[in-house]
Amino acid sequence: MYLKTLHLRHFRNYQEQQVEFTAPKTILVGNNAQGKSNLLEAVELLATLRSHRTFRDRDLVQEAEELAQISASLKRETGISTLNLILRRNGRRTVNLNGENLRRQMDFLGILNAVQFSSLDLELVRGGPEGRRHWLDTLLIQLEPIYAHILQQYHQVLRQRNAFLKRNIETSQGAPVQTEELAIWDVQLATAGTRVIRRRERAIQRLAPIAKKWHASISGSKEILQIKYSPNVPLEQNHSEKVQQAFLEKLQQRTIAELHQGTTLVGPHRDEIELTINQTPARQYGSQGQQRTLVLALKLAELQLIEEVVGEPPLLLLDDVLAELDPSRQNQLLDTIQDRFQTIITTTHLGAFDSQWLNSSQILYVKTGKISIEKVGVGRQKLEGIFQE
Ligand SMILES: Nc1ncnc2c1ncn2[C@@H]1O[C@H](COP(=O)(O)OP(=O)(O)OP(=O)(O)O)[C@@H](O)[C@H]1O
């Protein structure tokens, strides 16, 4: 797939900006805090309807404005699509595909696919389980857009069940709880949660061997990466009824604790994705360099898996990560990308790129929310022929 144009209006620090992508690789150059990451974030939003930097739409809308708009034209094997996303300060969104407003946000997903790689991704290794769940969920949304709906349903039931447990603490004052109402929430939570658990398990099953292969390749076969899904509800078989049964059993075991604490202690909101290298938890393992190898392997695996499932190579968004990789890891990444994946890269200086890369890339300069074409690689004209209509 190929992103031809992007238009930003009142998005972050962009007042009004049209960008045309004229080569398979685009390098955005600029000093810190000029708007490079903001542009990648806009593409990420079109792909996943999520930003890895914020949960609040009001952060995305330009100061003093009420709404922001991101529009794009995307070329896929099936034809050209136009995507349009309106974000409002109050969180209400409008999604529009090919000029038609969509009733369900889910139908907007899966049109544009992208893998984002930024220095924040190191938190996947170093940080807590929440970041890893978020990463896996974002990947799943792209593999199976219906997952966005499944996840939303689960979180809705979870919120309602938590509210019930909290209310119970406040109102019961030692009196027996309304077990009938709790039983209804239990069934709803187990039903919605089972759908989440089964899909997470399936995704890891597919991703783990690909990531393992990449990791071995980058580390010169010295390290073995294992990715293991460790669900909060025990999962012996990926079978709907069995998982649901195990879910309900665990809920029963934890009821007293849940009533006491006023919160739900069982379910996929407590899942973990274990990353181990040579059988040692990656978090405790070795240097930053090794952790970077792991994240790079995860990202390359994401690219490959999305390509396999979707049938077209996704976009790759590299947010200031190239400079953080040593030359051999850089080469591994650049060799993989070649011209196969349309790639948008941000950087503060062009020094990290070799001349071949610079020649075959479109270079855009970003300054205070404005983009200018001051310099274009020599190879641009040749590539334009291939990539433009
Ligand atoms: N809602 C908003 N309204 C106006 N400006 C915003 C908004 N959100 C962020 N900004 C501005 O965007 C800029 C940050 O841009 P961005 O995160 O893209 O930086 P960058 O160019 O990628 O730099 P770095 O190399 O530091 O990551 C800051 O100047 C910030 O004040």
TrEMBL record:
Belongs to the RecF family. The RecF protein is involved in DNA metabolism; it is required for DNA replication and normal SOS inducibility. RecF binds preferentially to single-stranded, linear DNA. It also seems to bind ATP. It is found in: Cytoplasm. This is DNA replication and repair protein RecF. Residues 2-352 form the RecF/RecN/SMC N-terminal domain. Keywords: ATP-binding, Cytoplasm, DNA damage, DNA repair, DNA replication, DNA-binding, Nucleotide-binding, SOS response. One of its GO terms (molecular function) is single-stranded DNA binding. One of its GO terms (cellular component) is cytoplasm. The gene is recF. PANTHER family: DNA REPLICATION AND REPAIR PROTEIN RECF (PTHR32182:SF0). ATP binds at G30, N31, N32, A33, Q34, G35, K36, S37. The keyword ATP-binding applies. It holds the Pfam family SMC_N. GO terms for biological process: DNA replication; DNA synthesis involved in DNA repair; double-strand break repair; SOS response. Transmembrane segments: none annotated. Its main location: cytoplasm. The keyword rRNA processing does not apply.
